[in-house]
């Protein structure tokens, strides 16, 4: 499957569920398709840490360094992966029956991710990355449909004692060309731990031109605005107001997307994204002549104006 940049750019991630580092020297990760790939692991994986393997070179996930490079491809139609320790004991599997992959999407290059790290390998414990919460860039610098070196977007149940960013937003439900729309972005930490350096990204839909915001974004790239917030204590929140203008060529439906992330592990990532939809009403009753051109005149008129 690979990534959108290259079908050969495959990656595999290991996760350490224990509270201590694990030495991987002598461990193996082996595929079920003629034992390919056949990876002799080396190095160590930190407590509650991730270990990223990238195929052939370190450009598969271009902005994150691989922990190990391997060779050998994974079969798109499905195969098994078996992780063994230095004593050759089976520690874990992925798709142990060797049939079709239970999740993942070759069309969108969405990764197959484990839902609960505490549950064994089964078809029900794997899901396809939803494409909302992402981490890492492909070889072309585009976002991956996965979360290498970060918690899986679908992982549950929520871990106690973690941060938990939640976002919401409001704006106009309807508008017309030339109108000014002010969005209110709300970011709160519902978790029990400090949310360190929250990063907020808002993507304006095509058809809205950015005017200003309070506070001002630290980065503006096209339709994308980015804010780096101060740390959020448990129960604390921040609000951002963002104003834009609807251009005449705007599409009928405008969807604004808000995403927040923190450097702190979160209980869940399912509430880190919020959408707001505005529908344009570009055809208006613009003028009404209700009494004719002269007294008692029956020549009445209504004007309808297309603002788009």
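Q: What amino acid sequence fits the structure above?
A:
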């Amino acid at each position: 499957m690979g990534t959108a940049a290259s079908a050969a750019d495959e990656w595999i991630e290991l996760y350490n569920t224990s509270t201590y580092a694990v030495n991987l020297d002598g461990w193996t990760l082996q595929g079920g398709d003629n034992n390919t790939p056949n990876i002799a692991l080396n190095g160590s994986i930190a407590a509650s840490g991730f270990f990223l393997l990238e195929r052939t070179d370190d450009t598969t996930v271009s902005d994150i360094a691989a922990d190990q490079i391997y060779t050998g491809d994974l079969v798109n139609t499905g195969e098994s992966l078996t992780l063994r320790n230095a004593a050759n004991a089976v520690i874990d599997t992925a798709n142990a029956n060797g049939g079709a992959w239970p999740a993942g999407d070759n069309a969108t290059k969405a990764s197959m991710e484990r839902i609960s790290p505490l549950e064994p390998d089964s078809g029900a414990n794997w899901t396809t990355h939803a494409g909302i919460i992402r981490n890492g860039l492909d070889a072309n610098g585009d976002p991956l449909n996965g979360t290498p070196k970060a918690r899986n977007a679908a992982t549950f149940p929520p871990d106690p004692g973690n941060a938990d960013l939640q976002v919401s937003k409001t704006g106009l439900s309807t508008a017309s060309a030339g109108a000014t729309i002010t969005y209110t972005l709300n970011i709160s930490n519902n978790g029990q731990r400090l949310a360190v350096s929250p990063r907020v990204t808002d993507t304006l839909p095509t058809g809205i031109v950015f005017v200003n915001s309070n506070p001002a974004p630290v980065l503006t790239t096209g339709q994308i605005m980015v804010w780096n917030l101060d740390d959020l204590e448990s129960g604390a929140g921040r609000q951002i107001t963002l104003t834009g203008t609807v251009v005449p060529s705007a599409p009928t439906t405008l969807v604004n997307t808000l995403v927040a992330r923190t450097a702190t592990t979160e209980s869940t990532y399912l509430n880190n994204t919020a959408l707001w939809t505005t529908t344009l009403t570009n055809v208006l009753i613009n003028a009404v002549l209700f009494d004719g051109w002269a007294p008692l005149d029956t020549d009445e008129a209504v004007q309808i104006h297309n603002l788009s």
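Q: And what stands out in the fold?
A: The radius of gyration is 26 Å.
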